[in-house]
Write a structure and sequence with these properties.
Elements: E1 3-6, H1 12-19, E2 22-23, H2 53-56, E3 60-65, E4 70-71, E5 74-75, H3 76-82, E6 86-92, E7 110-111, E8 118-121, H4 131-134, E9 139-143, H5 154-168, E10 171-175, H6 211-220, E11 232-235, H7 259-268, E12 288-291, E13 300-302, E14 321-325, H8 332-337, H9 343-351, H10 370-374, H11 378-385, H12 389-394, H13 399-407
Parallel strand pairs: 1-11, 3-6, 3-9, 6-8, 9-10, 10-11
Antiparallel strand pairs: 1-2, 4-5, 7-8, 12-14, 13-14
Helix pairs in contact: 5-6
Protein name: DUF1343 domain-containing protein
GO molecular function: peptidoglycan beta-N-acetylmuramidase activity
Pfam families: NamZ_C, NamZ_N
Length: about 425
């Protein structure tokens, strides 16, 4: 697998070194590049146009983007077109090219009204680019902000695009972005029989990888069909480290609409497999938890409503829910432990008066499957049985440690 790692600084010498560095394995690195000074300004891959614009000249380009794909404050498609890049096709993931579709909504094909470029949805009738859609393409670009959780579907889209590129002999250029949860590697590793649309890869709940690192792991671990390899080029994030706080300039989806929701998402999304609302149907999703039958157990309350473009038929719609408010929860507590928070799930189960309904899938069509979300059938059983938290965490081994060891081979950043 050949890779060219474009990296950190803008001097001609550094650019020359990186454009001529060919890695024979995912862990090979150029010796030059990067100041190593974390006080320097973090710069996303997309913002380092000087490292890839010349490479795009004369090429017919397809690009997979959404509303988080920006250069400065301008959508990347608009910027690249203005700079003379020949974009022949746009692809969009879940929530659509502009990021306005509700969770799980199928998105149709369209034409971008600003540029006139055809926009193809990969979250509707098709999941990956077709041979015909790539026939007139020389290079594919992937630039989407991820949040580092297994059940966040952009990593699935990444794999599908890599598969299509590998099948059709197309190169994939990844403009990397930081993982806001890059410090967190925790949770049970997905069990094979629980493979689903919210769990494709054998990884823990929070994987701690950037999109580019994840792409290298897909290649290196042979996760594409028939262990195909996708030819990758990567523009790294300048001056980034995994444990650095990173505030997203654009929210990644309608129900991750605050920095707090992004940081809490790996911990709270499992509640979608329970009777507990995670705040869908409010303007504070993934920062509050509650249910009607918890009245008297908690003082805080909220009432989910139908909100177009966010949650149109939320769990417990128009019914007051009682629970906990995490909008001001100190995220540094999670940074210190480096662990998925299980206490909220365990405490809510203990407090719920009708325990037989807590994980009951028949309660609402909006509820997910706790086993698929957790990646294991054990967690639900353990919570019902009152297994201590430390013992629950021990049951995630050796899978979690094995993943951490494998992950190290694909890291691009400290």
């Amino acid at each position: 697998m050949k890779q060219i790692l474009f990296s950190f600084v803008f001097t001609a010498f550094t650019v020359f070194c990186h454009l001529n560095c060919t890695a024979t394995t995912p862990s090979d690195k150029c010796k030059s590049g990067g100041t190593g000074n974390t006080k320097d300004k973090l710069i996303t891959g997309a913002d380092q146009t000087g490292l890839y614009l010349d490479y795009l000249k004369g090429k017919r380009v397809a690009i997979l983007v959404n509303q988080t794909s920006i250069i400065g404050k301008t959508p990347i498609v608009d910027s690249l077109v203005s700079l003379g890049v020949n974009i022949v096709r746009i692809f969009g993931p879940e929530h659509g090219f502009r990021g306005t579709a509700s969770n799980g909504d199928k998105v149709g094909d369209s034409v971008d009204p600003k540029t006139g470029i055809p926009a193809i949805s990969l979250y509707g009738k098709q999941k990956k680019p077709t041979r015909e859609q790539l026939a007139d393409v020389d290079l594919m670009i992937f630039d989407i902000q991820d949040v580092g959780a297994r059940f966040y579907t952009y990593i699935n889209t990444l794999g599908q695009v890599m598969e299509a590129c590998a099948e059709n002999g197309k190169e994939l250029l990844i403009l990397d972005r930081p993982n806001p949860n890059g410090f967190l590697v925790d949770g049970p590793v997905l069990e094979d029989h629980l493979h689903s649309g919210i769990g494709v890869y054998k990884i823990p709940i929070s994987h701690g990888l950037t999109i580019a690192e994840f792409a290298q792991m897909i290649n290196g671990e042979g996760w594409l069909p028939n262990k195909m390899k996708c030819q990758l080029k990567i523009v790294k994030v300048a001056n980034y480290e995994h444990d650095m706080p990173y505030v997203l300039p654009v929210m990644p989806s309608p129900n991750l609409n605050t920095q707090q929701s992004v940081m809490l998402y790996p911990h709270i999304c499992m509640f979608e497999g329970t009777i507990i609302s995670q705040g869908r149907g409010t303007y504070m999703p993934f920062t509050v938890l509650g249910a009607p039958l918890l009245k008297g157990k908690f003082n805080f309350s909220f009432t989910p409503k139908s909100i177009k473009g966010m949650s149109e038929t939320p769990l417990h719609q128009d019914t007051e829910c009682y629970g906990i408010d995490l909008r001001k929860y100190d995220i540094t507590a999670i940074r210190k432990t480096g662990k998925i928070n299980l206490a909220w799930l365990m405490d809510m189960y203990k407090a719920y008066p009708e325990k037989e309904k807590f994980f009951d899938m028949s309660q609402s069509k909006q509820m997910g499957n706790i086993d698929k979300l957790a990646g294991t059938e054990n967690l639900k059983r353990q919570i019902i049985a009152g297994v201590p938290e430390n013992d629950i965490r021990k049951s995630w081994e050796p899978g979690l440690s094995e993943f951490k060891t494998a992950r190290k081979k694909y890291l691009l950043y400290p």
